[in-house]
Amino acid sequence: MSVDMNSQGSDSNEEDYDPNCEEEEEDEDPGDIEDYYDGVANDVEQQGADAFDPEEYQFTCLTYKESESTLNEHMASLAATLKVSHAVAKLVLVSFHWQISEILERHKSNAAQLLVEARVQPTSSKHAMVHSSHHCAVCMQFVRKENLLSLACQHQFCRSCWEQHCTVLVKDGVGVGVSCMAQDCLLRTPEDFVFPLLPSEELKDKYRRYLFRDYVESHYQLQLCPGADCPMVIQVQEPKARRVQCNRCNEVFCFKCRQMYHAPTDCATIRKWLTKCADDSETANYISAHTKDCPKCNICIEKNGGCNHMVFFLCITVGFSLFSADFCWMCLGDWKTHGSEYYECSRYKENPDIVNQSQQAQAREALKKYLFYFERWENHNKSLQLEAQTYQRIQEKIQERVMNNLGTWIDWQYLQNAAKLLAKCRYTLQYTYPYAYYMESGPRKKLFEYQQAQLEAEIENLSWKVERADSYDRGDLENQMHIAEQRRRTLLKDFHDT
């Protein structure tokens, strides 16, 4: 919460509003707190059962050479067991997502069928139908036998056609997807078959990169870092939709879908939500992300802090007392009621009779519901940006105090940690709204909305105190940090997909 109103005209900075709900690029918003998950754990350490962190997730950042070594180790071991070439072993591993235990079980029960399912051997019936010929099936030219090449399927093509086929596909970015040229033949070409057919070292280097990409992306325990031109690979023991961070480029993402981290919303739901936001961005354009009319004096007001607790000083000056000058930015209601009724502010009230009304009425209700959740999603996104500016001011204030011998960085670091934790909690809160939008009505949704409202209330309390840190002692601020983080962990523990 903060003193958040400062404008009286209609100059609402509309050029800053982006109706697309995807996160802004980091270089567009230098105020982002990139490392708000780091360095705050000790300030909110919890005891006993509450010490469980639902976001705790073990992962390792591997270099290109380390990940390549890991892949080659698996490949060599499997090749020896299956008695196949290294190139064929890699294709088998790709087909079964590098789950070696499953491959060995399938090999034990039916070794031939394993290779058929991996698309490195044809079925016996298809193999029997192939007839010997000295003609290339693509260019239809008569070719000497030694210039005809084929995979295990025995579909023969001349070397020149194979070279063109492989060259075109590799130039298009294909790796393990290079397959037989015969119609309806799905056999994949092992890399030791393709490499001699590529005419240049440049093309071979591209092929190596595409193969590595496909090997990693098919591995159930590995993910390529989505950071720009970053070669790092993230390795986990158990793949989950959890937060991981590259130690080279500091990119933060969800391990499972490689998109922005989105707990408690699951990967499929956040994809639906972001697609809907993009599709309906023009419809949502009318939402004023920066300005609203004061509920007392109707003057256009602008938010200048991340908190939703508004105090409009002009109202106080001219004597308006309808809401005692304090109101909620989201619902414009009296802030005093939010201690007990915050649940109502963040919960969408469904129309139970809407199914019996006209299609037009149902469409209006669907739009109303979407805009309710979108506005709150967008509001917390904007609050994160405004609170990043508060974080910058706190850092400057700490630097000033240290320079004036008013303590050390360690003495004042709790202020920085409070701002980091505020961003961490608000980021989670932002992603509760897509979750709630798609959630079916019922007791579980009521529990979620209750916990969501509890978290939102404590975040606003923390935001208010962070922006007025000089008015609160350290113990009070750290206690509020503890409460907010406890609310956040409780919600994730109960609703984050495990």
TrEMBL record:
Top-level taxon in the UniProt lineage: Eukaryota
Disordered, as annotated region: 1-40
Xref: PROSITE patterns: TRIAD
Top EC category: transferase
Alphabetically ordered keywords of this record: Cytoplasm, Ligase, Metal-binding, Nucleus, Phosphoprotein, Repeat, Transferase, Ubl conjugation, Ubl conjugation pathway, Zinc, Zinc-finger
Comp. bias (Polar residues): 1-11
Catalysed reaction equations from the record: [E2 ubiquitin-conjugating enzyme]-S-ubiquitinyl-L-cysteine + [acceptor protein]-L-lysine = [E2 ubiquitin-conjugating enzyme]-L-cysteine + [acceptor protein]-N(6)-ubiquitinyl-L-lysine
Domain RING-type: 132-349
Subcellular location(s) of the protein: Cytoplasm; Nucleus
Cross-referenced SUPFAM superfamilies: RING/U-box (SSF57850)
Stretches that traverse the bilayer: none
Functional pathway: Protein modification; protein ubiquitination
Family: Belongs to the RBR family. Ariadne subfamily.
Name listed for the protein in its UniProt record: E3 ubiquitin-protein ligase ARIH2
